[in-house]
């Protein structure tokens, strides 16, 4: 089932939670709605589900307007952050619930329900827990059961709202890989809400980045990471350094070094977003910042903190370049983050407090 979200707006009082949001989800696709808290992810999901109405716009399932279709007739399965399992029912009965409450004419036989529930429990690899009660399960197991329960009624659309949000980091990691494999097996059109960039990039076919009630970018994980459509997307998807400078004839002079750009024609104030792993550092020797062309090719900085965990040294650097702002005031020391290989950091013999030359890699 494909989903088309057309020009949806939604306000709560005078707060605009969604502003003219449009989105197409292809049949069988797994989409992540990614954005900071309060950007409207859950509201959009609830409108798609039919749990909330929009002020304007429409949601189409396979081309059909769902505005007047009741939530129970939308063939939608849900999984929420807080396990919505029935505490007084066994795992088996929880998964069977949606089948047991079907009208008599549509309800499968007891034997068919048993077969279906056990095959779903096998699918989520928890068939050995069928007789347990929710209180006897771990958080991760509960979420897998919640997913099995959502799948029991064979939904055409699966909506997941921060399904792993309440779990610890290690379990989350395992479950997102597991969810991806499950999706590859089932291909149910799915929308997954998360505020965790890594989770969205790892799990989804396409990522929808939201900010303040609007969609900033829709693209594959590679597209949103490599080619962010806005400064917000750049910053939200990972650590980033913002440098200010001036663009002229295909190069941008920043606070200490120059970068080449593709655009020969742009002139004026410029910003450059540089990820920590795109920077390199060298021990500083006076004069080293002046390149062959006589221009500055690096930024002088002091290592304020060095966090070396595993293969990466994360360096927090304070720029000490006495650069002048446009109004001729000295720009305050800037915090720069650079990530280099831990081996290289050790070979260079660098320590906190040392002065280094920061260059683009
Ligand atoms: P989170 O990650 O924190 O869940 P979100 O991106 O899912 O955030 P929403 O839950 O969609 O955000 O909420 C968007 C905005 O709308 C928030 O500012 C929220 O306070 C507001 N909001 C949501 N539901 C209601 C409501 N029923 N009444 C009033 N305001 C609401």
Automatic annotation (TrEMBL):
Q: Extract the InterPro entries matched here.
A: AAA+_ATPase, ABC_SmlMolc_Importer, ABC_transporter-like_ATP-bd, ABC_transporter-like_CS, CysA_C, Mo/tungstate-bd_C_term_dom, P-loop_NTPase, Sulph_transpt1
MF terms (GO), sorted A to Z? ABC-type sulfate transporter activity; ATP binding; ATP hydrolysis activity
Keywords, comma-separated and alphabetical: ATP-binding, Cell membrane, Membrane, Nucleotide-binding, Sulfate transport, Translocase, Transport
The reply on keyword Oxidoreductase is: no
The record's Gene3D superfamilies line, in alphabetical order, gives: P-loop containing nucleotide triphosphate hydrolases
Q: Which residues form the ABC transporter domain?
A: 3-237
Q: Which Pfam families match?
A: ABC_tran, CysA_C_terminal, TOBE_3
| GO CC term, one of those recorded | ATP-binding cassette (ABC) transporter complex
| Protein name (database record) | Sulfate ABC transporter ATP-binding protein
Q: Per the UniProt entry, what species is this protein from, by scientific name? A: Lampropedia aestuarii
